[in-house]
Specification:
By secondary structure, the protein is mostly helical. It contains four helices and no strands. Helix 2 packs parallel to helix 4. The relative contact order is 0.11.
């Protein structure tokens, strides 16, 4: 039994694929680190991450199909299969997991912020109604005070 490495050497373009996989996997890591440190998701764009996750999934499926030998010629060897699809599978699996964490965190914070805005709006409406009632009472009191001052001026309370 021979090993895969003994069958065919990995060509330079396959190493380029592995380097690209590593760089793509590293690409999403700073975003996750920043998110863990700050817990601030306001700068994360939901549609961008949704599209990115769909792209990761499509690349992952493509890598699996290449590894199965689909679309890379007639009767490819196992080393051809693994070397053509493995960089995609590795990179997109790592990026998919990291991006899913970021996307899930953003959706969670977005939902909480939306609920908080509704609560804040309700609070503002309550404050406005309390203020309006206070304003009516002050207006009524000022009217009573004006009437009382007029009575004092006319000598109404001296009696």
């Amino acid at each position: 039994m021979t090993t895969l490495a003994a069958q065919e050497p990995l060509h330079w373009y396959i190493w380029v694929g592995f380097i690209a996989s590593a760089l793509i996997a590293i690409f999403t890591t700073p975003q996750l680190i920043n998110l863990i440190k700050t817990r601030n998701t306001t700068y994360i764009n939901i549609p961008m991450y949704a599209i990115y996750l769909i792209g990761c999934f499509c690349f992952l499926v493509g890598g699996v199909l290449m590894t199965c030998g689909i679309g890379i010629g007639d009767n490819p060897s196992w080393s051809q299969r693994l070397s053509s699809g493995m960089p995609l599978i590795i990179a997109q699996s790592i990026c998919g997991v990291i991006s899913s964490i970021i996307f899930g965190w953003k959706i969670k914070n977005y939902s909480a912020a939306k609920r908080a805005k509704v609560t804040e709006l309700q609070y503002c409406q309550q404050l406005k109604s309390v203020y309006d009632e206070y304003k009516k009472k002050v207006h009524a009191l000022s009217h009573v005070e004006k009437t009382r001052i007029e009575e004092v001026k006319m000598g109404g309370e001296d009696k």
